[in-house]
Amino acid sequence: MPNEKVIVTDELKAKGIDKIDLELHKITVAYEDVSKRVPDLWKEHNPDLVIHLGAHNVSKTIKFEQQAFADGYCSNDVNGCTPEGNRTTCASDEQCLKSCINCDELVRDVTQRCGLDGEKQYGGLKVEKSEDPGRYLCGYSYFLSLHEDCSKSLFIHVPPFEGECTKEAIAEVIRETVKSILGYY
């Protein structure tokens, strides 16, 4: 079974994004590793934008996650572990953190930029806003980034590859998403 997020990350690394210096990092699907690496990467790179990628099973739909949650992380990671108290490790009193990136506007802009019509372009690929990244490493890592800087954080869930909904098509939509957020045309 392909790991879409890894394949799309490799595609982005291979072809990049014009005028943008990409730093791509794959993090083990383990709470302890994510708890350490996400804040460390923020400190090390002081990025203009952090995009987290995860895979989901909704056909032909890329989801822009608007928010993430502090607790409810009771599913075991690849090491068979859960975080202490089923909570994120950052010192936030907030139960929910929202990205300052307006996902409704982003959906409209990326749909237009990529000519996504939900029917023909890239086999019917579409983008939509989501309010629930899940209570696994996707939501967990996203909450940590939102805690670092909500104006520079977004989580994108990518669909399974299917027909014209290929790694290249998904990577192109992500490129346009990054350019839209950073104001490149």
UniProtKB/TrEMBL annotation:
Pfam families, per database record: PgaPase_1
SUPFAM superfamilies: Pyrrolidone carboxyl peptidase (pyroglutamate aminopeptidase)
Statement: the UniProt record of this protein carries the keyword Protease: yes
UniProt keyword list: Hydrolase, Protease, Thiol protease
GO biological process: proteolysis
Organism superkingdom: Eukaryota
MF (Gene Ontology): cysteine-type peptidase activity
Family, similarity comment: Belongs to the peptidase C15 family.
The protein's name in its UniProt record: Protein CBG22181
Lineage, top ranks: Eukaryota, Metazoa, Ecdysozoa, Nematoda, Chromadorea
